[in-house]
Amino acid sequence: MSIQNPVKRLFMTLTQGVYVVGVAEGDLRNAFTASSLMQTSMQPPMLALAVNPRNASYPLLVEGGIFCVTVLQNDQYGLADFFGNHSARDENKLSAVPWHAAPSGAPVLDEGLAYFDCRVMSKHPAGDHVVILAEVTGGDFLQKRARPLRYDELGDMDGSDALLPEHLDTRTPN
Ligand SMILES: Cc1cc2nc3c(=O)[nH]c(=O)nc-3n(C[C@H](O)[C@H](O)[C@H](O)COP(=O)(O)O)c2cc1C
Questions:
Q1: Nearest partner of 148 among 16, 25, 2, judged by Cα
Q2: Domain, as residue range, for 40
Q3: Tag placement on the chain: N or C end, fewer CB within 10 Å?
Q4: How far is the centre of ligand 1, averaged over its atoms, from the C-alpha of 173 (Å)?
Q5: What is the pTM of this model?
């Protein structure tokens, strides 16, 4: 699919990976695709994750206080699409794929490339998303010699072409 929105094309130059974030609270579990994830600290190792609070996963993530990031392999478009374009409001996504619980209890997809187990430290409003800062409490490779999937390889899978503004205010402040 060709991307029409120039602002979407601009944002696609930011190098991002594609992940499935598993959440758990009590007996409830879910997972959703995320690309807005970055490392923020080395000591302690920390990640920042931008989450749409309208995701069904959001209350589980905040109330459970933990999550697990499965890094997708470079051919796992189907998993990115499934976990990113279906909601737990309509189906039990985790019943469709093999997964296991990370030490935190949050789900990890067995077929991913690697995982990061995380503990929520704080949350910060950020426009239409909430940035979650988390300490990485564990993690490991799930496969050898695989490469990660990149967000810019997915075209408009997340529908952001229509969500981003088509123009940016580029005036230089006085
Ligand atoms: C490629 C891709 C990247 C996405 N990145 C994010 C993201 O970084 N943060 C987010 O909150 N949602 C992101 N989403 C959207 C959620 O995955 C989507 O809304 C999902 O249906 C939420 O599932 P849930 O309602 O079961 O929690 C992304 C979707 C796709 C397809």
A1: 16
A2: 6-160
A3: C
A4: 34
A5: 0.96
